[in-house]
Structure formats: structure tokens, C-alpha cells
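pinned: reference chain
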Amino acid sequence: RATKDMGIAYAMLTLFHFSYFIGFSFFHSWAAYHRWFTVFFVLLTQTHIILFVIRYPDNRNHRFSLTINALLYAVTIIITSFYIFRTSGLSPFFSFDGHYWDLRDNDASIITGYTIVAYSIISIIIAVWRITQLKSRELFSIVLIILPLFAGMIAPAIFNVMTRQGLMTREDFQISLNLSHLICFFIMSLIYLNTT
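pinned: its C-alpha cells
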């Protein structure tokens, strides 16, 4: 079950980055609507990463994982719907510091950013709880897996909020997002494949 969640998380992460690829590849104001997809796919990615942490290396917390699954999917749908509703009537603008089209609703972007940070905090709490449940080799394996996982999730989540508050350029955020996802999720995959 954990492997399935990792696969779904990686598939959602691929769609997340594909949405950015579309947004950056085409210089028309419609490209701004890539944000609707990035919000949805990043939250689904984090949902399945959280489920992976709950279910790896065993599914002893089956009922809890079903509850978390339903709760996080509901929040994902609510936040995505909120973001789409708030930005659907807005005129897109070209963001010169990020070289892409965007939707001008900073409040909706900050709320969405804080939701992504909240998902990251939930994953840390669940990981600490799982570490207390596991022993010896299983414990060693999950610690090795979650270290790059958290680096790949938490730093971009915080940087996203920082860029929406003007504390970081969007260009720097995009570079850090791409590098952290590429490096950290690759390392996580290697460790997972070598410990299972």
C-alpha cells in the first residue's frame, strides 16, 4: 500500500510540474490558469506522501490512514475550489520576476501557501508518531526516507509563502522548487528501493 501511495504522489508531482511547464511554455494570458492545476496537484502530492509515511513499512494504522485520506482529500478539494472561485474573474498579469503569467489574488495565494505549509507540518507530526511506533531496521529505513522527503517538501512550501509576501523573488522560488524536488525525491526513491 505504501508503494502505491508513493507512486500516486510521484504521478501527482509529475502533473504539478507539467502544469508549470505549460504555464512557462506559452506566452498567452491563458497560461495563468496553470495555477489552478498546480494548487490541486501539489496538495494531492502531499496527501499521498503523508499516506506513504503512515503506511510504510506496514499498514498497522489502516483506519487512521483512511480517515486522514478522506480529510486531506476534502481539504484539497475545498482549497482548490476556493482558489479557483477567488481567481476565476481576475485578469491575468505577466510576472516579470518569474517570467510567467499569474493571477492577481495575493490573499488566495497566501491562504493556499499556508495550507501547503500545514500539510508539511502534518507530515512531520505523523512521521514523528510513526518513528515512535517502529523498531530497529524499520525505524532506520523510515528515518532515512523522511529526511530527503521533508527537505523536498518543507523548504519549497515555506519559500512559496515567502515569495507571495515579497520576501523572495518568484524566479528564486522556482529554481529552489525544481532543485529540491528533483534532488530530494530522487534520493528518497533510491533509499526506498534499497531498504525494501
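why pinned: The beta strands are 92-95, 100-103. The mean pLDDT is 89.
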